[in-house]
What we know:
It is a single chain. This protein is α/β, with parallel strands linked by helices. The chain folds into 2 domains: 1-77 and 166-251, Rossmann fold (3-Layer(aba) Sandwich), CATH 3.40.50.300; 88-164, no CATH class. It has 10 helices and 10 strands. Strand 4 (55-60) and strand 5 form a beta hairpin. The structure holds adenosine-5'-triphosphate and magnesium ion. The site of magnesium ion (MG) has 4 residues, from helix 1.
Amino acid sequence: MLECRGVTVRFGGLTAVKDMSLRVERGTIHSLIGPNGAGKTTLFNAITRLVDIQEGDIVLDGRSLAGERADAVIRRGVVRTFQNLQLSPFQTVRDNIMAGLTHLWKGGIFAAMAGAHRTFQKEAEDKARAAAELFGIQNRLGSLAGGLPYGILKKVELARALAAEPSILLLDEPAAGLNNDETAELDETLSLLKARGLTILLVEHDMSLVMRISDSVTVMDFGRLIAGGRPAEVAANPDVIKVYLGDDHGA
Ligand SMILES: Nc1ncnc2c1ncn2[C@@H]1O[C@H](COP(=O)(O)OP(=O)(O)OP(=O)(O)O)[C@@H](O)[C@H]1O
Ligand SMILES: [Mg+2]
């Protein structure tokens, strides 16, 4: 359903992503892995139109995303979370989750004057609650985000993304900073979302999580495609092993 075709992203003289192609099939969990600085987040930024692409195309269900604005990409059902949490500490969990819903507001100023915004507000609150329930954080809806434990904030970000009713969810290191119990919960949640028909593109360094839940894995290094396939194939690929065990990264 989502395809990157020969995507190149440059920042001045630095090529962060070079001729990168991958294809995410509907209803699957597809992981994108690679060492630090491989270009994974940059590819997410390209897909969600936060950076421009210099070459190639990104296609969702047969239609290009390359010329779209970031908000249009969300309206087409492509929603992401961020490697570094992007929540407002001074807002409640409810308001943070509802911030993911603003693009669903179709009315303009006249609809708002006619009171449609109150219906929208009510629906948005219901959606925020449903998303919070999925992560077991409904009792935190009224709490300010600032000061909540990191594991809860990661759930708030996931809930905000899900409340937007994506067809494909892009997760940038959702397990980073989580303890073992929280990672096991995440594992269950992602499997549940897949069972509900959601497509997931996952950037993650936790290899045991990746190997357990992925249908396909794509490996990047220095902005380029190294390998792709089923988890077991990729794990046995000598080029991939070299990338992870090689001494040229220092990481
Ligand atoms: N906005 C930017 N301006 C300039 N260089 C950037 C920018 N964003 C990323 N880069 C560079 O592009 C390269 C790829 O970075 P990117 O963040 O995509 O890697 P990553 O695979 O997500 O790494 P990590 O696993 O550490 O998150 C790095 O060399 C990085 O410094
Ligand atoms: Mg990254």
